[in-house]
Here is the input.
Amino acid sequence: MDEHARGGPRPSAAEFLRANHDVLLAEWQQEVMKHLGGKAPAHPPWLIDHLPELLSTLADAMEAGPEALDERLEAAHAAARMDAGFNLGEVAQEYALLRRCILHRLETQEQQLRPGDLTRLEETLDRVVTRTMTFFWDMKQRTLQTLDRMSEATLDDPDMETLLERLLTRLMETALTVDTAAVMMLEGDALVVRAAVGLGTDEVKGLRVQVGQGVSGQAALERRPFFVRSAATDPRVLLGPLRRAGLRALYGLPLMNGEQLLGMAYMGSRTAFAFSDSDVLLFHAIAERASAHIAQVELHEREHAARREAERSLAQLDSLLESAPVGIAFLDLELRHLRINSTMARLNSKSVEMHLGRTVREMVREDLQASVERPMRQVLETGQPLRDVLIQGPDPVRGRPGFWRVDYFPVRTPDGVLLGVGNTVVDVSDFKHAEAALQQAIDFREELIAVLGHDLRNPLHAVNASAFMLGKVPDLDTGARRSVDRIRKATARMTRMINDILDFARSRLGGGIPVTRQRVNMLELCQGVLDELQVVYPERPLTLEVHGDDLWGEWDPDRVTQVLGNLVVNALQHARNDSPVVTQLTGEPMDVVMRVCNEGDPIPPEVLPHLFDPFKQSRPQQDPGNKQRSLGLGLYIVGELVQAHQGTVRVETGDGDGTTFTIRWPRVPPPRGDLPP
Here is the structure.
């Protein structure tokens, strides 16, 4: 059909392309999705962003000739496709779909182009496709060769700095316009130049740029490439050596391991204001490979560090196991020995090596198997530790009965998975034997106390009774009567000493001094004690003062009289000669207060804090040969007996005031929660 038959002139190819620009774009998109079968493309069809430019270039070439085609367009298209991961077939397929859309649009409109335009359009498209494919293939080969050389640089497993410098050298050997290149590693919040080649290598190494500062720091913060047209004059370039080197083009991009930023890489040129698409694409490929190598090296370094730490920890554990004075073992879920120290192995009379991989039943003596295995099974079943399990049996090391205290505990992973059971064994045989010896000593002490309490006091009672009868004889002269008094005083003092020793032993044996309460009158108890002491000390005035009518309460009468006797005798020993010792009784609503006062010298301040300690004197002993010195148990027994009655005792002493001991006797024992401290 000619143009006269169609009723109008035929359009030129340029006019057709410009008039159908939007329709061709839409139909090309549909063809791409149809070719993919409705699936999402593996790579974004980037040509859709450049199709307006491509269609315009084709239209210009149809009018001005093939010379209007700009090779940089095909090179940019090829570089972009390669950077997106296209293969050669995918590149050709995109252009084939574009050709199909143009021809389909011509058929749909039932139009014919001017004579020869369709052929020229086909030739122009062929030229675009051919040059794009050629650029793509050349860049692919160049990149593959460079990557192969990069792989060779890693064969001898170099350190990080050496590896990076080799990779950068490969870049400079391949891209002739590159005069310098470097890798900046992320260390904390700064980028540090770790490797560099070319201009300013020695000056730039080790320099730091904070993330977020300068062109490289900002690019690292935003995870994007950067480009500077004149690095020598751009204030955003913070590395001084790069400005002093007179660099023009400076291009950098982040080194990424997934979402993790490893650092930045840059390349610079003194001759070019911009890098070619081919050089940029090659730099991207090298940076990607460098990132993988860096991540791998860091992973290996972490693995080596973890291995070294594990080996050091195992060495420390082995050293601890061997030096520990206790037996230690770890067993798996089948109760097979995983680790054991020599202390534990010796208990089984076998070596450490013989235990490894063997079960408890295979290693422990038959008579101990049940007692050892049962708690381990319980720990595995319950997941709870067992403490202070006592095992008794023959000791193969000492050849005598042995005792061992064992702790069992579950062994778990950090996330709580049960791996097995561990146990520690402490040999307590010496403690048990010492405990048995101590028990024997305690038994002996109790027998000794029984001897003191019965076999010694009975003769003393006889001596005291005989002295009392002698004192009743009317014809005794003065010297004989003084001798009888000395006998009675000595037997009374010895009786008190024996009583104090018995009570001290009872208090230290753990049971405390026993008291038997009954309802008694404090006045009657005190009057009886003072009457007996007055007979022993007839030359000393003993006075009793009473305040109040109600002096009844629940006390142990023997212990109350013992307390008063110890206090009065102590007061007599330290009072001035012929001065009275006064005992006061005061009835209060809840307590009966007992006070024993003398007019002696005050108690020294350094003695007061230890006044109620056993074997302590209430005053320093002036004459070591003094026959009246005591064991120092009297006030200790006083404190113990008052505490047994839930009462309190305190002392007041001073110059000119003498010394007063004040005891509060509760009439009824207070509840346990109300006991005085």
Confidence is low (pLDDT under 50) at residues 1-7, 622-628, 673-677. The two ends are 125 Å apart (CA to CA). The CA atoms of residues 391 and 404 lie 5 Å apart. The longest strand covers residues 400-412.
